[in-house]
Design a protein that fits this description.
about 300 residues, mainly alpha, three-stranded mixed beta sheet, 12 helices
Length: about 300
Amino acid sequence: MQNQSFVTEFVFLGLSQNPQIEKIGFIIFLLIYIATVSGNLLIVVTVLNSPALLNSPMYFFLAYLCFLEVCGTSASAPKMIIDCLFEKKTISFGGCMTQIFAAHFFSGAELIVLTAMAFDRYVAICKPLHYTTIMNSRLCGILIGVAWTGGFLHSIIQILFIFQLPFCGPNIIDHFMCDLFPLLKLACIDSHIFGLFVVANSGFFCILIFAMLLVSYAVILFSLRNHSTEGQRKALSTCGSHITVVILFFIPCIFEYARPPTSFSFDKLVEMFYTVLTPFLNPLIYAFRNKEVINAMRKLWNKRMMVSVEK
């Protein structure tokens, strides 16, 4: 790598060239990041401390999804927030590679967890009599293992290809974080083939899995015609929340990676939505509208209060 690359650090242009806008962005995104981490970790702690939720595959996967959201947003958001306070925003070559690896690792794992959650809902609604037999703890553990393995393989392949590129300058990235397409523009060789590889490795799989999820939910919604009104209402509420989360995850992902490696003026806004706002919205959409999660949070809070009073 050192024989090919002369660049030891990269310089971000950041969210804006206006210092006042950057300072406002620092406050806004810091508050969003704190709320994101707090909200997602609250759900994780609630599920882990509630045996009824932990033994339910739906909430088991939800806890993992929230954990991945925290890890994924922490891969880039803290650096972006801190950079808002500085005029010169730099990141080392190794730090850039680490940021790319972490972002794609956790997003790849999240993609598989979302797929597992869709499969769980399909079994629960379309094959209710076989639900406990199919969605047992062993299968849930295997699906989580597949998520971690898939995320790692997806990310390490990206990094290995990036390491093959020589970076001899310039080193200015018109972005607020390291990502594949902005880096490809800085390579000292024709990176067209690498751009096609990114589209195949990231964009194609995003489109394929997104299409599969839409088909699976179409099948689920079609099967609801045979359920009672109360069952339809409850299933539509759960599926509606999950479909919303899926759309918020996949649409920006498809826009970023399922296209030729060209730049658009609103790329930063899409990336910001994908890495910062989506993890913030997911708990609000999926968990805090759920009565079982809210009741579990109340029980956990009351239990903590009772322990504090006894002490």
